[in-house]
Amino acid sequence: MRDRPPVQRYYGSRQSASASALAGVASTAGPVVGGWVTQHFSWRFIFWANLPLGIAALVLSQIGLSMLRETRPGGRIDFAGAALLTVAVAAGAIAIVAAIDEVFDVARRLIDSLETAAPPKNREDEAAKARSRAAERFGTQA
Predict the structure, then answer these.
(1) Number of helices and strands in the chain (H, E)
(2) Which of 15, 43, 51, 126 has its CA 20 to 30 A from that of 111?
(3) What are the residues whose beta carbons fall under 8 Å from the beta carbon of 45, sequence distance 6 or more?
(4) What is the mean pLDDT of each run of 10 residues along the chain (142 residues)?
(5) How many domains does the chain have?
(6) What residue numbers bound the domain in which 125 lies?
(7) What is the pLDDT of residue 80?
(8) What helix, strand, coil percent values describe the chain, rounded to 5?
(9) Which residues in 80-96 are b (16+ Cβ under 10 Å) and which e?
(10) How far, CA to CA in Å, does 99 sit from each of 79, 87, 106, 114?
């Protein structure tokens, strides 16, 4: 960072702060706006609204990247790295889902064990209720 002139360091930190602020606003406002649009229109509307935005972002990023591209011979895509990253992300997602399922399973078993370990209710009241239900059902007196 010291090899750049002070002006470039200043603008770089300003751009970083702007990007961070924009990311914060987007992560807060995005779900709110998405929920409002889904509630008032439909989830399909979000797809059709984001489709042209995604295409525009793709075109603008290609234009921007072509202006930054350095001409180096021998540049190539790391397909093995991309495949490894894909497998790692998929494995991580599967591990997280499995861990969440396990946590809920343990919580369910804990709640079940607490219910069975609870002290019994007043058995005399339960017996009286059962006798009155039987009396109502069979038309006899309890």
Answers:
(1) 4, 0
(2) 126
(3) 37, 38
(4) 54 78 90 88 86 93 80 76 94 91 85 71 71 78 56
(5) 1
(6) 79-142
(7) 93
(8) 80, 0, 20
(9) eeeeeeeeeeeeeeeee
(10) 30, 18, 10, 22
Buried b (16+ CB within 10 A) or exposed e, 17-55: eeeeeeeeeeeeeeeeeeeeeeeeeeeeeeeeeeeeeee
Q: What's the confidence (pLDDT) of residue 2?
A: 56
Give dist(CA 117, CA 108) in Å, integer. 14
In-domain check, residue 50: no
Asked if residue 99 belongs to a domain, the reply is yes
Position 29 in a domain:
no
The pTM of the full predicted model, rounded to 2 decimals, is 0.35
